[in-house]
Write a structure and sequence with these properties.
By secondary structure, this protein is α+β, with helices and mostly antiparallel strands. It is built from twelve helices and 15 strands. It is 38% helix and 14% strand.
Length: 475
């Protein structure tokens, strides 16, 4: 039987009139490519050499670990996301669906580290653009004694669970594997202390990234747009520190014999000149302050070596404080976190801070959704493939959405609905939503049943009056 999916794709005509060759291509075949710039497993999408590969990983680490504003921003993001609750949502309403959801919900509680600790490590995909985690399985055979070769588990159901999801450090990346169409097949790394080559296929890993543009496995750091203001701020602060130190110590000027500058100077004279240059450069007010210099005179009795400190010319012509503040705002604005600066600069209303924090929550929700999508698309199916569950729809891990609820506005909204005659209660789903919005405990199902029964008993009973005969004496 002929393959009906094969057909001849006509050649294309280029703008200059040249015609390409015809291709015998199937309707399910892929012809084009994403256009990702890569060579020998190295991705070359970043146009700044300082932000490419291992060098870029070092820069992003310096930005998060050595810059107060970016450090505070990343700390806020991490603490907010770590505080989010995760729930296992059944894929259906059958008892098997509920059992599958319970099993999935037990996975975060059975890792070798706590779920918030793993979330913290996974969030490294934000500053670096990506994070790669190997899936390590285990058989759940209950608690094991210390030193046992069998991994310990909080459950003894004999099923296959997840032992750990360890990160494979971004700075250890050697190269990526790609298939012919640009799909990601895995990576190779050279981790310390042995720096031996280790290959980790994508089937045994989870890849988290901020963006999948062009199928780039390295995503794009959320700090990428903050690099330029960070770079200039760092340079300005270093110049400012040097200027302050010079103003405190004075401007050093040394005088040395002219023969030291001549091309015919001896090696000893050249070494002496270099030593004086180093001395002038290193002069500062500290515990090592002081100088011993040679006391040499010429034939006229003039001292050949002099050293003096010129007084400062006065206040600096440029105030660096507004410049640095502007760079701080630019860095924080790249991830909508500039609301953390409102109080420091003594400007901005509470309403403005509230609006900006809402935008920040939207961004955090987006990253949470992206992380949950990777877990549900790649971890959950593999987990159920190696176990004995048979359900039509797999359960999913879902984080609670970050929302700032104004209880006063919510109360007024509910009151307005009731005022126009909307029958709100009894409604268990609405009651749960309102209590959750205020972080109040919900009553149990038994308590709700008992309360509703009491409300039914308290309702007045309507007793109809007997019909009145026209001949009855009403008196």
């Amino acid at each position: 039987m002929a393959d009906d999916t094969k057909k001849l794709i006509p050649g294309l005509v280029s703008p200059n009139g040249d015609r390409t060759e015809k291709q015998d291509t199937g309707m399910y075949d892929e012809i084009g490519a994403t256009g990702l710039k890569r060579s020998a497993g190295k991705v070359d999408e970043e146009f700044l050499s300082d932000l490419q590969g291992e060098r870029g990983a070092r820069v992003y680490r310096e930005m998060t670990d050595n810059e107060p504003i970016l450090g505070a921003m990343m700390f806020a993001i991490e603490m907010v996301i770590r505080s989010v609750d995760w729930a296992s949502i059944p894929g259906g309403s059958s008892p098997q669906d509920a059992e599958a959801a319970d099993f999935l919900g037990s996975i975060p509680n059975d890792l070798n580290v706590s779920w918030p600790e793993w979330i913290s490590e996974m969030l490294s995909f934000l500053p670096y653009g990506w994070s790669y985690h190997e899936i390590v399985w285990k058989q759940r055979l209950g608690k094991q004694p210390s030193g046992s070769d069998v991994p310990s588990s909080n459950y003894d159901d004999g099923r296959t669970g997840v032992r750990k999801l360890p990160i494979r450090g971004q700075e250890t990346l050697d190269k990526w594997w790609f298939d012919d169409s640009g799909g990601i097949r895995g990576l190779s790394q050279r981790p310390p202390p042995l720096f031996d080559l280790r290959d980790i296929p994508i089937e045994k890993a989870l890849l988290f990234r901020t963006t999948a543009a062009k199928g780039n496995p390295e995503g794009r750091s959320i700090l990428r747009n903050a690099y330029r203001p960070w770079y200039f701020k760092r340079t300005i602060e270093e110049t400012e520190a040097i200027g302050i130190e010079r103003e405190l110590a004075g401007f050093p000027v040394a005088g040395v014999p002219a023969r030291l500058f001549k091309a015919s100077a001896s090696d000893a004279e050249k070494a002496a000149l270099e030593e004086w240059i180093r001395t002038v450069r290193d002069i500062r007010n500290d515990s090592l302050q002081g100088l011993v210099k040679p006391n040499e005179y010429d034939e006229n009795g003039n001292n050949q070596y002099t050293l003096e400190l010129l007084a400062t010319g006065g206040q600096r012509a440029i105030d660096t404080v507004p410049v640095i503040q502007r760079k701080n705002v630019e860095m924080a604005s790249t991830v909508l976190a500039d609301f953390i600066l409102l109080g420091h600069e003594k400007v901005g209303s509470f309403a403005l801070a509230s609006q900006k924090s809402d935008l920040f929550s939207v961004a955090v929700n987006g990253w949470l959704t992206a992380a949950a999508d990777v877990l549900n698309r790649h971890l959950v199916p593999r987990l159920f493939d190696v176990n004995d569950f048979r359900v039509d729809e797999l359960p999913t891990l879902q984080p609670t959405q970050l929302e700032r609820v104004d209880l006063k506005e919510l109360g007024e909204y509910v009151e307005d609905l009731a005022g126009i005659g909307y029958d709100l209660f009894p409604n268990r789903a609405l009651e749960s939503a309102l209590l959750q919005a205020a972080n109040l405990p919900e009553p149990s199902e038994d308590e709700r049943d008992e309360r509703e029964a009491e409300e039914e008993d308290d309702e007045p009973v309507f007793v109809p009056m007997p019909p009145i005969d026209e001949g009855d004496d009403l008196e």
